[in-house]
Fold these 4 entries.
Entry 1:
Amino acid sequence: MTNKERFIEIYQTNIKRKGSEKLLDFLLSVHSDFFTAPASSRFHGNYDGGLVEHSLNVYDCLKSYLQRTQELYQISYSEESIAIVALLHDLCKINCYHKGTRNVKKDGQWIQVPTYEFDDQLPYGHGEKSVYMISGYMRLSREEAFAIRYHMGFSGNEDQRNVGKAFEMFPLAFALSVADMEATYFIEGKNHG
């Protein structure tokens, strides 16, 4: 099963909210490069299909994290909420990366290597842009919106007090941030995968 097929299967199995079909139609359309885009320009998932692979890794990490902590903290989330926040947290990266080249010196010679250039035509932030894009198709719960908004945790540009408060108020925000970092640094990092 390809990453695209797995994403669609998880999405259609778990996300039944009004408008979810139209959001999936957008992701599959020619107006979206979600299934072919990289997850970043130079770091984790910086290859074709990296974004969908990262989204699936975050889904797997979030499910695992929540299974380990559910009993300890007496919190649980629906399969729909888990799928929404994990699979859709980085929609803000759609149509932002364009193939290009850069010069690097190898063995004393300058050569051109492929790269991705970042060009965001809707510069609305990171997590907040994903929330904005999703909200155009379907309604998010407050906790889902905060989880996606603050999924970068303390590594983002947000006021640290706001991140901490969001994590206190909405445990799913903290869990998604942990899952995103686990996927980024342990599964997809330079020395892994």
Entry 2:
Amino acid sequence: MLRKNAIFAHQNTTNMELKQVSLYDDNLELYNEQLKDIAAAKEYVSLETFRFNDDAMGERFKQALAEKARQGVKVRVLVDAWGTRQNFSFFDPIIKAGGEVRVFKKLILTFNFVSDNHRRDHRKILVIDNRIAYIGSANIAAYSLSWRELNLRICDPMARLFQKVFNDNYVIYNRLDLDKLRFKRDINYKQMSIIQEIPSRRRQRLSRRYEGFINNAASEVVIETPYFLPSSRLRKALTSAAQRGVKVVVISPLHSDVQTADIVRRHSLGSLYQSGVQIKFYTPGNLHAKCLMIDGKIFSISSANFDFRSFQHQHELALIGHNEQIAQLLDTHIQRTLEHCIDFNYEEWSKRSRFERVMEWLLLPLRFFM
């Protein structure tokens, strides 16, 4: 558990512009709060997630959802076929109790097999009674109890907007082609926007938005991501910001759960470091949080990793904009993450073996699907 490494969950609640907002970076606390909210549901529960594992934690959620369905609550679940790979009979108790379970785009044989099957639903949303919404980085899996995550609970009329997002993907769960203008639109709320990213090689709205934020940063850019594989445009934006005096900090796990991504990541770290980008490695375990913070004010909390797969191939969701409550919570989360990070060692990187360098080059083309 992260507590054994002196990492403590950050949960704080304030009442200002939003009725109530809480941030969770400990999945045990997150899951317990989600299960409590599900148990209190009166009208409906809508859950969309990339991974819903057949394990102890998945069983707890399955039983909680089935019980609400038996009580007459409208329960709908949308899981991704790639991320949720177990036998889908696992969900039978929910269906038999009157709930609905849909599987997002099962793997198919097509001429563009790799491209088509990379169009995954990577979003994580839980909406309850148009009153409570959860968004962020956490799947439903027992193994992630030891991971550091980033999830937001919003108890506010804004929750109904996330219900609308869920409804859209619930409708197109088995479609490869869709009305992109409709499903790419932003949903604005006060000084924030919900960005609904869908697969596109040319119109990567979330990536472009991040690039704009970084280019306009005045004092600080902080990125927290499990997989750091930026495009050339984003690398240029980061290095340009650092060279004009902006403090640019990239936080990633020292060892993520995807070793190939770590190897490919290593290739460009030296040039970023030489340009002034500060690279920090989180050491207690896997860092699965996904956020961007600009000048301590503008933020993005999302399901999207800082890589090609999230920006080009997947359905992602981000809450971006300005809100003092959320910015304060996020700043505390980042500071606590940094307490358990080490700096990138350029000297060690420059002395890596020829074998390591060859492996980086051989695996580099895979970055477009990572």
Entry 3:
Amino acid sequence: MSNFVCDNIGATQGGHLTFGGLDTVELAKQYGTPLYLMDEDRIRHNIRVYTEAIAKYMPAGSGILYASKAASFKEMYRIAGQEGIGVDVVSPGELMTAAAAGFDLSNVFFHGNNKTDDDIWLAMDQGIGYFVVDNAEELAVIDREADTRGIVQKILLRLTPGIDPHTYAAINTGKVDSKFGTAIETGQAEQLTVYALSLKHVRLSGFHCHVGSQVFAEDVFERSASVMLEFAAGIRAKTGYTAGMIDLGGGYGVRYVDSDPYLDIAKKIRGVAQSVRATCIRLSMEPPAILLEPGRSIVADAGMTLYTVGTVKHIPGYRNYVSIDGGMSDNPRYALYGARYTVLPADRLNEERKMVCTLAGRCCESGDVIQDNILMPEDIGRGDLVAVCTTGAYNYSMASNYNRIGRPPVVMLQGGESRIAVRRESLDDLLRLDI
């Protein structure tokens, strides 16, 4: 590993930050700022770490689904299709983006705790592969709509296994008290399963869970697998139904700052596979196919955001503010979660950084901060470039037009070349829907 938070980051002799092998200063000149950069080579590498480890260690039929919500635009689905993986979607917008990119929708899993009737109709009309069903109301609509089309719709049931991954409360989704899924502990998951098995136009393919995001804990997925397999074994004993797949969701953590640990994903997958095999032996059951849903760990370290400094404000005895031409409209994660980032002076890496400051955005909002307590050159000023690292996940996808600010473009980097994947939002774009 390099001295940077991720090994696709480097520096030129002249002190310019590089990303994916390209000079960020030159990229800023070419495309302007704010600017989302995405390292395609890194995305593909991260996908292959998963697929190769799963092929080596997991039961036959296992695989990954890219969690679209981390970063959803056409190029991501083209990459997923070329790499031979499935995807999950959580909205009609994500579904139709995948369709527009030519992705095979039979390999798409549609999530969500409150899919509308229109969502279900659209997904069926498009030939969705699977619904990940959250509740009985949704199940009834899927069965009814499948009946009208003369089809049998494949589904998974999303269950809550009662696992606490000790992560941010806002992204902890595996506890019994969650808006997602149906709880095993209360007996409701068994009731939902029996109901699903009674329906003529639904085919239950297996069970799904997701315990949270940014997970570093050693045994979270092993514990989830154990709970889910024990539930599946119990259902088999009571009904005769054998689950063909168990989807353990996603959530492996990534390094945002130097203090975050480095996760060996292949080693983690091997550990989960060993746990699955041991549990299946104990329960006298054939191992089902295991699905994982990485999102952040596919795209986070493949992303970087570049900004241009506008003003620097010194308040003696209080704080220094470095204000940039973006902010919470293109990255709301600090405002939402207090998310940590590594921030670097992209054009002045060789210079000493002694000034403690807050990186503030341009929005008319006191909470518009990208990061507190960072170090910058003492004479940083208007026109200098700042890079925020590890922004590939939940930055573009969570961006808004707050303050009527257009969203930045997404520029893909591959093999020493760059290209626009999503163009910069213009003032005309902002006005297009107004009447």
Entry 4:
Amino acid sequence: MSQTIIHIATGNDVAEAARKFVELMGDETVYTFTGEMGAGKTTFISALVTALGVDPEEANSPSFAIANEYRSETTAELMYHFDLYRLETLEEVLDIGFEDYLDSGALCFIEWPEKVADILPDDTVHVSVRVNDDHSRDIIIEKPE
């Protein structure tokens, strides 16, 4: 695995960090996001889909819907943002057709991926959001080689 870290000093730097993240994206389509509750996973993913051309007004948390679908206004690329926090079992995840999303070729951004670890593709990019003592954040990107 190769590792890259993007530092976010303040909340004002999230959009720039998302643009840097987009520059690092390759052909992979599945990205998992881990970090403690309140670390900023949803905020970062919202900035990320905005950097990919989604209207900022549409880039919100799927916490209650479980999945949000976005389409880039610039490239027409399809993206899914999953928040699996409320799901209890892998069976519940499979019931929403999760594997079809993974196989769709669309970008999939997954919060709380622990529940689906066994069915993620081998080329999944794992992203951790770490809160530092000074309240800054580090986005730690681990890409398979």
